[in-house]
Structure formats: C-alpha cells, structure tokens
Description:
Elements: H1 4-33, H2 39-54, E1 57-63, H3 69-77, E2 98-101, E3 109-114, E4 135-138, H4 144-151, E5 157-161, H5 162-167, E6 187-191, E7 193-199, H6 203-206, E8 209-213, H7 217-222, H8 224-233, E9 236-242, H9 249-260, E10 269-275, H10 287-305, E11 312-314, H11 317-326, H12 329-335, H13 337-391, H14 397-438, H15 441-457, H16 461-499, H17 516-539, H18 544-604, H19 609-641, H20 646-653
Parallel strand pairs: 1-8, 1-9, 2-7, 9-10, 10-11
Antiparallel strand pairs: 2-8, 3-4, 3-7, 5-6
Helix pairs in contact: 1-2, 1-13, 1-19, 2-13, 3-11, 11-12, 13-18, 13-19, 14-16, 14-18, 15-16, 15-18, 16-17, 16-18, 17-18, 19-20
Amino acid sequence: MTSTTLAEQFSAFSDWRANLGSQLRLLRQWLEHNDLVDPALLTRLGTLQDRLRQERLSVAFVAEFSRGKSELINAMFFADYGQRILPSSAGRTTMCPTELLYDEARPPCLDLLPIETRMDHPSVGDIPRGGAPWIHIDLDVSQPARLHEALARLGECRHVPREQAAGLGFVVDEEGEHGLRPDADGTVEIPCWRHAVVNIPHPLLRQGLTVIDTPGLNAIGAEPELTLSLLPSAHAVLFVLAADTGVTQSDLTVWRDHVVASAGGGARARLVVLNKIDGLWDGLRSEAEIDGEIARQARNCAVTLGVDAARVFPVSAQKALYAKVTEDPLMLSRSRLARLEEALSAQIIPARREIIAEGVQADALGVVAATRDLLRSRHAGLREQVAELSELRGRNQNVVQHMLHRVKMEKAEFDAGLQQYQAVRRVLGQLSTNLFAALGIDGVREQTRRTRQTMLASNFSSGLLVGMDEFFTDVRQRLDGASAHAEEIHRMLGGAYARFADSGLSADAVKPFDMQPFQTRVQRLLERSDSHFRALVTLMTTEKRALTQRFFETIAVQVRRTFELANRELDNWLRNVMTPLEAHIREQQKRLKHRMENMKHIHQAIDGLEERLALSRESEQTTEAQLGELEEIGRLFRTALQGEKPDELMAIAA
C-alpha cells in the first residue's frame, strides 16, 4: 500500500506523458498517410518520442549515518512488499550510492560494482552496466524475505590497511573528524562496493521513478561522481535528519557541501526531513506538548540550515512503514508521512511536466508549424494555378504565350534567389564547421592532457589550483566561441527565411540556439570541483599524482558529457531550422515546374485546359482538407499538454 497521494500524482504524470506519446504517433502516421514525410522531420519526432519513453523522475535521499534514510525509502515506496526491502537497522546500512529503478529490458537484479574499480575506472558512467566488472545477482521479487536478504549486501564492508583506503580515494583521519578513523590495529573499514543498481518492477519504478540512496558523509566525499553527476541531476533531494540529534556538524557539512551545492542555487526541490519523531512519544506528555516540541525542533533545524520552516517535514519513517504494512490509518496519520509525500509530488511533478511540455511545444508543434507552412505554400500555389487556368478559358494562343512568359520570369526570379541562398548555404556550412570545431571533444581531451601535465609538474599546491582554473577557463572560452558562431548562423538564417517570406515561409521557425544551459552546467562543475578538490589540495592529505588524476578523470568525464550533449542539441537545432527552409524551396521548385508544364501543354493544345483545371481544383481541395486535419492535430497536442484525460483525447482523435 503506497501513498495514495504520491502514487496517484505520479501515475497521472505517467499517463500524461504516455498520452503525448500517442499524439506523436498520430502525427507521424498522418504525415506518412498524406505523403508529407520529410526525413529531418521524422528524425525530430523520433528523438522526441525516445525522450518521452526514457523520461525518468529521480529523487535522491541524502543523510549522515543512522538518520533513518533507508527506512524512509522503505516507507515511502516499498511498504506494499509487506516488510522492509532496503536494509534498515542501527548503525551503517547503505554503504555505497544505490540507484533503485526498473529497466524492463533486464530481469529483476542487483548489480554491484567492486570498490577496486576506482583504480582503473575513475568514472562509474564509463563502465558498461551488465558485464564485468559488475557483480550480477538475480532477484526474486515474489519473495520479499529473499529480496530483503539479497539487498542486505548493500551494507557489506571490509577492513583494509590505511594506505589501501587512501589509494581508493578515502580520506583517513586519526580523529575521525575529517575522514575515516583507523581501528586499533591500524586498518580502516571501507565499503565493498562502489555503486549499486537495484532493478525491480515496482509500480512507481515501472512508471519512470528512480530513487537514489546515498551513503554518509565520508563515503559521499570519496565518490566525486555522486556529487558531480547523480545528485545534481536529481529532480528532488530529500535531506534526512534525526529528531534525537538535530543538526550535527557532520549533518551541516553534508547539507552545505553536497545538498545545497548540488542543487545549483535552488534550481531543484530540496526538502528537509526531520525523522524519528516517534522518539518524543514517551507517553508522559500530552499530544499538544509533543506537537510543540516537534515544531520547536523543526524551527531550530530550519534556522540552522537557512531554509523556510515550511520546508522541514517532521516524520516517523518507522511508524509510517508499520502503519502501511498493518493498514493502520491512525498510526499513518500520526507518522505525518502523507504531508511529506504530498509536498514531494507537488514540487517535482509540475516542474518536470512544464519542462517536458516546453520540449513538446518546441519540437512536435514545430513539426506541425513547418508542415502547415509547407501546405499553405502549396495551397497558395494551387490557388494561383486555378486562377491562371480559369483566366485562360476562351483565350487565344497569344494570351497563353504571355502567361507562359510570366511564369518563366517568376522562375528566373526564384532561381536568382536560390543562387543567393546556395551562396549563403556555403557560408553556413563553414560556420557550422567552426561551431562544431569549438565544441570538439578532441580539443577538450587535448586541453585535459596539457593541464594534467602542468599540474603534475607543479611543486606547490598553488600550482594545482592554477591548473584547475586554467582548465575551466579554456572550457568556458570554447563554449563562448560556440555561442558566438551559433548567433551568427541564426542571423544568416533569419535573412534567408526573410528572402522567401513572400511565398508563405514563416520566419518564426528560426529560433536562436541557447548555449546558456551548457555554460551554467560547466559553471556548476567548477563550483562543485572547487568545493570538493580545493579542500583536498589545501589539506594535501591525498598524494599529488593521485589527486590530479582523480580530479581530471572525474571532472573531464562530466565536461566531456556536457560537450557531447551540446553537440547533439546543436545538430538537432541546425536540422530543425534548415528543414523548413529547404522543404519550402523544394516545394517552390516543384510548383513552378508544374505551372510551366501546364502552360506548355495548354500552349500546345487548348483542348486539355478543362482537364488540368479540374485536377488543380481537386489538389487545392485536398490541400485545404489536409490543413484542416493538421490544425486538429495541433489542437490535440495543445489539449494534451493541458492535461486532458487520455480517453477523451483518443475519442477526439478517432
């Protein structure tokens, strides 16, 4: 029995997303049926369909050890198994970053990545999932007890010499204040696993939810990719505290260094959960006194963390899980979990839906607009053709000759414009080459290599910091250069569109490319690397070569992915802005050629005039009908974006 609020909200979001996918299939089928297929437009639709299918909502849970984080995940998402699924007991349970999701292409399983892979594979994302060195364990989801037993492996640890722990990226500190504290025999306890992925067909996971369970402070700090990739990409971060401890110094460090920083200045939902409020249910105080104490603790936590008190949610995860399993509504109400679930769904789902809607409006409705412009141009040409043929009725050969000459003049004018466009097209080709050169992956790799050499050759910590700054300066300059090239391409395309605007081409199809998201992403990487690595450079607790390699291998992966994404988005943008223009030019060429053929045939034989007039009128009517159908498809998209019920929409489409 999952929370009705969270489950229903997420289910409605999934239905909305699926309905948009249905409308995309309807548009594609209509284009194919009406022989209006353009490869670039189909690619645009296909890319959007893939994005909708792969769309996931991720929620990350962050806390120090023993705050009840895993129990909270059990209560919110997995109570319908009738028992705990994630290990949840006193002390440390989840020892490595864990993703809970469902990929229907794979059987239910647990994939574990050994901690030793840090030596050869700096980035988890670069290790293909499913094969070596991942450890694969099949899961029996029909047996909750066996599932719980299998997932207990998430907490496996072992003791290693402190040198080995440091070599694997863990900070070792004799006092245990800034890292892992050695045992009496000098060994250090480290997790066995670096990363874990749990693939189970839970209803919410089936619908695209991903839950990210993170370990405590020392383990988070040892895996930079967690703070550079997983947490920043999460759509919501739940920071879990314990009511019996309040905000400790280590809690504050996790909040400041890994929650606030990863959220990019508040761009994503951040909720604070004050767990274990059942510890205040001592039976000696009244409910009013208990409520007052909980409210006071929540206010204190809000002040310490610098957030609005309304963003702090007192709960009892343990009592909530028990209440759901035993179907005790009074206990569930007292656990206060429903308010947290309601706030979570209210914050992440509308925001994500708005982003998806913007993408559909830009791409799907962009395809509709491009097709509409093409049909309007075709319709205008057919209407002109019908007028010309009607005017020829009863006229002699001299009149036909005059009109043929007029069409030839129009074609000559069009050909002159086409030659100008071809010249512009060659310049655009060079600008596009410059654009992709600025975003070249090889250039980023070469800069990474040079900067790494500089840092390794440095004898002082200041040299390491200078090297880091130089790396990001180069990366930002590349993005700035690409942005300038994209702006120049946009200006030239605007002129090309204006050249053909008189014949029905809409200049609205030329949208500028926004480089800002990629520049912002790199800036956040800079801020995250500063907060994570500058402290290590200052402390110099990590050997210089290991720190340099760890910094660049980790950061370079994220920068490279940013550039790869920018390359894909730019490629899509160029296709999207070029396709309507080139389709329009082809349509103009086809229309002028058809008009000239008509005139030539009529010039040779006036008797064929009525037949050609009838064919032109029939084509005109067909195009009018296609425009009407296309307007209906556009209306269906706009209705779907507003959240119309799927069955109502399909009835309209039928």
